[in-house]
Amino acid sequence: MKVFVEKDYTSLSKKGAKIIEEVVRNKPDCVLGLATGSTPLGIYEELIRLHRLGGGIGLDFSKVTTFNLDEYCGLKKTDPQSYHFYMWENFFRHVNLKPENTFIPNANSEDASQECVRYEEAIEVRGGLDLQLLGLGRNGHIGFNEPDEHFVLDTHVVELSADTIKANSRFFSSEAQVPRYAMTMGIGSIMGAKKILLVVSGEGKEEVVRKILQERVVTPRIPASILHLHPDVTMLLDYKIASALGGLDLCE
Ligand code: GLP
Q1: Which of 115, 131, 221, 230 is the most buried (most CB within 10 A)?
Q2: Residues sharing a CB contact under 8 Å with residue 209, sequence separation 6 or more, in sequence order
């Protein structure tokens, strides 16, 4: 795992977008795995800026396919808290991605297990993920793969942990409004990506980052720890978190 400590959120976002830009420029028909949450917002903003560059150098998404990591169960696509809404609002509608090339799990499907299989197959049919963008939950979750006794490999429905419900309640009017279940790509789906970009920013993540980087134990109790076993992971870490840990230097 390559770790870059970025001086602030802007530089973390610019660097993250640059890594994604490189993948898109090198392979215009690439397949990107996308994430939600507060952390990737700056990356999406920067990608939109790159897309809008004039003089024929704007970043072209017309051949790109995207697969989102997860979606809440029980929210309509039009619900402002749904990840469908988030993606359209914060990214898709601002760039030239073709709607038919954007995939988000249908967490309200009548047959959830069939939808999970369909999602895995769709990723495979498109040739697999060239890059997976990940945020990090305060409890170490990636996508909605929550701390557990074991890793779940494929796309599945998960019961959200009390910690995640609490952390994500900031987007809802109350904790009671946060859905209790979600559909998420599994650890195998994520680890199948050729390249992984893990961006870490936000409150209350120092302890989990310390465990991942300093204890270096791979355990389903900290789902992101599995990323130590992937050959091409870049972690972009906010300086605020890194400085709380000590021993991590600022990168250019
Ligand atoms: C949600 C998402 C995750 C995301 C996490 C962290 O639970 N399912 O994919 O990484 O939140 O979010 P934030 O970036 O807002 O801290």
Answers
A1: 131
A2: 136, 200, 237, 241, 242, 245
CB neighbours of residue 173 within 10 Å? 9
Find out whether the beta carbon of 31 lies less than 6 Å from any atom of ligand 1: no
Ligand 1: residue of 12, 13, 39, 184 to mutate (most ligand atoms within 8 A of CB) is 39
Ligand 1 centroid – CA 222 distance (Å)? 14
CATH number of residue 50's parent domain:
3.40.50.1360
Report, as residue numbers or ranges, the catalytic residues.
70, 139, 141, 146
Of 22, 50, 32, which Cα lies nearest the Cα of 102? 32
Query: 121: domain range?
Result: 8-138
Ligand 1 pocket residue status of 102, Cβ below 6 Å: no
- Tell me the per-residue pLDDT of 40-96, one tens digit each, with 9 for 90 and over: 999 999 999 999 998 899 999 999 999 999 999 999 999 999 999 999 999 999 999
Residues contacting residue 53 through CB under 8 Å, at least 6 positions apart: 59
Q: Is the CB of 143 under 6 A from ligand 1?
A: yes
| 175 located within any domain | no
Residue 208 maps to a domain: no
**Which distant-in-sequence residues (6+ apart) come within 8 Å of 177 by Cβ?**
81, 169
For residue 202, the ligand 1 atom closest to its alpha carbon is 16
In-domain check, residue 248: no
The answer to whether 6 touches 251, Cβ cutoff 8 Å, is yes
Q: At 33, is the secondary structure helix, strand, or coil?
A: strand
**Domain count within the chain:** 1
Answer yes or no: is 51 within a domain: yes
Residue 147 near ligand 1, beta carbon < 6 Å: no
